Amino acid sequence: MQSIGVSLPVQEELTAPQYIELARAAEEEGAHTVFVGEIAGVECFAALGMLAGATTSIRLASGVISIYTRSPALTAMGFATVASLAPGRVAAGLGTGSHVVVRDWHGGELSRPRTRMREFIAAFRQAVSGHRVNHAGATLTVSDFRLRIPREGDAIPVLMGSFNAPMLRLAGAIADGVILSFCPLDEVPGRVAEVRAGAAEAGRDPDELEIALYMSAYAGDELDAALERFRRLVLQYAVQPTHRAGFAESIPELDRAASLWHSGDRRQAAALIPDEAVLRLCPIGSPANVAARLEATRDLGVTLPVLAPQSLSSGDVQTPLATIRAVAAAGRAAGKTP
């Protein structure tokens, strides 16, 4: 297949050496980018730094980190540090995060997300370029900061993780691209259209934007186990108020499921996620099926399909590793270049 991205699992209790193993496999299979997310496991910049030293050509991107848990200055310091190890192959994936991450775990307030994103990206870009930053906005303030890490080469591209229409349009207006996720094939054109419309409204060329799309996937024979694992994965994201709009068409009883989830009845909440919804959102099954789903997104406006392989149990690196290898092999067998 044409070059794809690979997103490393972030909820599987994997270790730093296991992340290195997965990233090296992605690079060996010809992947364009490896994305490193951040929830409650491996810290993003530590992971990006170790991957910069463990790889030679693959692009390294966060995918995504919250704009509420770090300041623009600290974020610029982190990306500049990684870029000094891996010049020209770093990208910044930024998103809001959820109320659980921002409020419950970090003591912040997830408010005015579009304003915050606009101000954060402006301050971050100024900081990471080496300019002195003085920004007094509605949601954040930076006074007299200047980065002290020399950096050469092109600017670090900013990719916005976005679920709902207003944030998709904002991504088109101010970012270098967007990261979509949990998006069925029939919904891809509509979300891409929102991004492109945002770019056009801002006087930008929509064709210059990168459109990345995560597909959480499993390639293998343990279909029942995979279906249950992915049902819970989908639910964990779908019940978040910041993400819910992106799942509404796939899960008819989402509001009820969210209510049960937040009341602590996780089992009943999961029972409201039908198999069809899971399979609509996540390719599960043969490597050829997964590879074909990824490839199909290109005709729908996606410029970088991203394989997000998942484990079937905590600490299991072999399952996502096997998915990376098998999907790459299936792409080659289909007559595409890796």
What order do the helices and strands come in, and which of them pair?
Elements lengths: L4 E3 L8 H13 L4 E4 L7 H11 L4 E4 L2 E2 L5 H14 L4 E6 L3 H7 L7 H16 L4 E4 L4 E5 L12 E4 L3 H10 L2 E5 L6 H14 L8 E10 L3 H16 L15 H9 L3 H6 L3 H7 L2 E2 L1 H10 L7 E6 L8 H16 L5
Helix pairs in contact: 1-2, 1-13, 2-3, 3-5, 5-6, 6-7, 8-11, 12-13
- Mean pLDDT, all residues: 94
Strand content: 15-25%
Strand element count: 12
Poorly predicted parts: none
CA-CA gap between termini = 5 Å
Any guess at the CATH architecture of the largest domain? Answer: Alpha-Beta Barrel
Domain tally: 2
Largest sheet, strands/sense/barrel:
8 strands, parallel, barrel
Task: Give the SSE string.
Answer: EHEHEEHEHHEEEHEHEHHHHEHEH
How are the strands of the biggest sheet laid out side by side? 1-2-3-5-8-9-10-12
Helix tally?
A: 13
Q: Radius of gyration, Cα only, in angstroms? A: 19 Å
Shape: globular
The CATH superfamily of the largest domain is identified as Luciferase-like domain
